[in-house]
Amino acid sequence: MSHDAMTPGTPSSHAAPRGGGRKRKRNEGAPRKPRRGLKIALGIFLVLLLAGGGTVYWMYSSLDGNIKGVDIDKALGEDRPEKLPTTGQNLLVLGSDSRAGAENKELGGGGSVGGARSDTAMVVHIPEGRTKAVAVSIPRDTLVTRPECTKPDGSTTSSANRVMFNSVYSLAGPACVVKTVEKMSGVRIDHYLEINFAGFKDLVDAIGGVTVDVPQDINDKASGLSLTAGPHKLNGTESLAYVRTRHGIGDGSDLGRIGLQQQFMMALLSEIKSQDLLGSPTTTYKIASSATKSLTTDEGLASLKSLSDFARSMNGVDPASMETIMLPVAYDKQDPNRVVAAQPQADTLWKALREDTSIPESAKKSPATGG
After folding, report:
1. Taking the CB of residue 333, how many other CB atoms lie within 10 A of it?
2. Which end of the chain has fewer surrounding CB within 10 Å, N or C?
3. Angle between the 304-313 and 41-54 helix axes, to the nearest 10 degrees?
4. Cα–Cα distance measured from residue 57 to residue 59, given in angstroms and rounded to the nearest whole number
5. Contact call for residues 42 and 269 (beta carbons, < 8 A)
6. Spatial CB neighbours of 317, under 8 Å, sequence gap ≥ 6
7. For 322-371, what is each residue's pLDDT tens digit?
8. What is this structure's pTM?
């Protein structure tokens, strides 16, 4: 969410991303950078499932043309974790802080910021049977090893150690983010979804807003967000500020807002599932149109039919049963404004996802919490 904004609480930045540490210092002269929390792309699945039930061909054609596809498989080749037959499905869901287009630039805070970063990142694991799911938030300020990657323009970027996780997207594109996640986790990513600022805002507005129970008073002067503790129904702009706020919650770090982001995601999914969208084709189309216009997926999901089929297969997943976890991290010893994967917790967590087994409680505890 500098507007900054999903078991409780994730992050992003641009040219010089801020860290997951206790208190950050801004670089002299650096423009204010709005932050993140667009962890709601799973809601798109349910929207598209319903949209697929009652729309006519011309609607399908319109929505189908909105979706942008990225050929992840071609970009990554064979150097990937093995896909086991009983390991469920794994999705990498990104919220992007792209300033492309007037609306994204305005929502992102304007300024002369170029490019984009992975504002929010979640690995969503759907076990065999698809009746539950777990979402693991990767803090944007986590220091990782970036593997050698092929950029969208065909050039190659070399491997590098101790780079900010959210910088991978801006340097080498979505396929490299997938490769980085696969290398750090050993988890095979089956699908990729990305939504930008405008898509997040429009989706929330299309469903009529989302009600959240604000855990404490928030007064974020950077974003202008001011909320008292208790229930509030937020429109799209307010929701974006809520999931991106960091100055108004916790210790002011990116880690502190992950709880808000994950709480909001649950509220959004519940709101979508509770609405009788089949009873209102106009509303359904409006929601699906808002979602698809700002959506980028892997080639396997880059059509309305593919998204609808996938959503239909997930219809048994109840948002109330979805578990949300932050990747266990610790403050980096060299730079307390950055974090690193905490061991052995992180390895234990990834192993459980790879093997489609229950996640031990010990693997859910993060030394760095954001306050």
Report:
1. 8
2. C
3. 100
4. 5
5. yes
6. 126, 130, 131, 132, 133
7. 888 999 999 999 998 899 999 999 999 999 999 888 999 999 999 988 75
8. 0.77
